Amino acid sequence: MPIGLSFKQNSLYNYGGISPNNLIMYHSTYNPLYYYNTGAYFGTGSTMFDLTVYKNNSSIINQAPYSGALSLNGIGTSTGGYTLSPNLVSYFSSSFNETQEIWFKNSFYNQSGTNGVVISHLGQTGTNVGYHHSNFEISGKTGYVGLFTLSIPGLSYVPVDTYIDGNWNCMAWTYSGTLLTVYSNGVKKNTLTVTRYTPTPSYHISLGTTDFTCMFTGTYFKGQIGSFKVYNRSLTSDEILQNYKYEKNFFTRSVRVNVIGPSEDATWYADIITKITTAKNLLYPGYTLTITQNNNSAYSGSDLTVSNYDTVLIFTDGGFTSPLGTNLNNFVTAGGGFVICTFANASVSIVNFTYTNCPIVFPGNQSAGGNLTLGTYTSSDPLMNGVSSFNIGTSGYGASGLTLQAGATSVASYSNGTNLVAKKTIGSARTVSLNFFPPSSTVRTDFWNASTDGGKLMANAIMWSGKAI
């Protein structure tokens, strides 16, 4: 493989704001581009995909789970072990200049801190044999980066930053000549002059494994990995910051949604909130979703402003106040997101609401047909992220005779051809139609089948209309 080969840009390998040149391995366990571009998330079985043209897929040892990120439980002999890259040595020149960047979440942090090797360098596929050393390690509340040298004490290292539970953090380091530079969340933190030992003839990188040649305890890492990049050159400070600013959008985005369901049965309403929250945690674990609940027949929407909410999800089996429709119109006009579900899209009109402000024309019927399933759909659309099945339930509560507004796009249909998911962008507002009644069979057996992906449909609609994805 030629040294310094530039990154190949095409429709599959397009990383937006990430610096592409000399990127030789990119595991984007959290980036939705994985799903859109490959039809899979970030791996399958025991393989963790590399999205570069080089296909440097890593092996996942002991099958760590894919809960929207690579989840490592710190026990190397059971589920949640570690990863192992292929031999990368042929990509490097004799100077072995390099950059590594990793997004991680210290999930098992406690008041006294925690320990664990996040990145380890190996001279063979086996761990703790031959050449091996901890490269990025957490001890207590602080992260450290080190490189191995032939001089005493062997492993030279510097502190990076303190990492706190509940937050995604980005660590990066570069090596050029004899200068090791470390960064935390895009900001340079420390430097160290060190002559790096060249790991030849083999150079493997492991995420999460134990390593006895360590800075501290050398234990397995407990936490999540969201993204990992390796370059065969030293990136500049500006490039490190550029990468951080772009990729943080996949880890720190937040959405504020107002779930409006006037006069609903309390258990039904609670089921909807549970399904949305569960799906959000699975598909978008690093995003913050703030839900405001309005299960009040008198709710007028007087607080519906884009300074308060990013989007709304509206449904009902009851009715709406007349001011609510006017306030919803003003909200969409101002750029707020809008997700409409049954029966607000069927037999219960939102008074004073202009239905051209959503993807569908208001129909009259409230049953699309019993036990309809997911038919044709656009798998690459973000509204279908993680969705592979849907069953409307025995009562078929959805709208029949659904007609799309001008400018709307059908994303998914039922098995009988009736529209299930549609979207429309109006100015800066994103609007979505979900053609089913949101409570599931968990609370009433004739509602949509809770073993299918209705929760994911609602979560995706909220995240997309709220402009988080």
Brief summary of the model shown:
The protein has helices at 33-38, 237-247, 266-283, 322-333, 454-465, and strands spanning 23-27, 43-44, 47-48, 58-61, 70-73, 82-84, 98-105, 114-122, 132-140, 142-148, 155-162, 168-176, 179-184, 187-193, 204-207, 222-231, 254-260, 288-294, 311-314, 337-341, 360-361, 374-377, 403-404, 409-414, 419-426, 429-434.
Features:
single chain; 469 residues; mainly beta; Jelly Rolls; Rossmann fold; 2 domains; 9-stranded antiparallel β-sheet; 8-stranded mixed β-sheet; 13% helix; disordered N terminus
Structure description:
- This protein is mainly β.
- The protein has 2 domains: 23-250, Jelly Rolls (Sandwich); 254-465, Rossmann fold (3-Layer(aba) Sandwich), CATH 3.40.50.
- The protein is built from 5 helices and 26 strands.
- The strands form 4 sheets. A 9-stranded antiparallel beta sheet has the order 2-3-4-6-15-8-9-10-11, with no helix packed on it.
- Strand 10 (142-148) and strand 11 form a beta hairpin.
- The longest helix has 18 residues, at 266-283.
- The two termini are 35 Å apart.
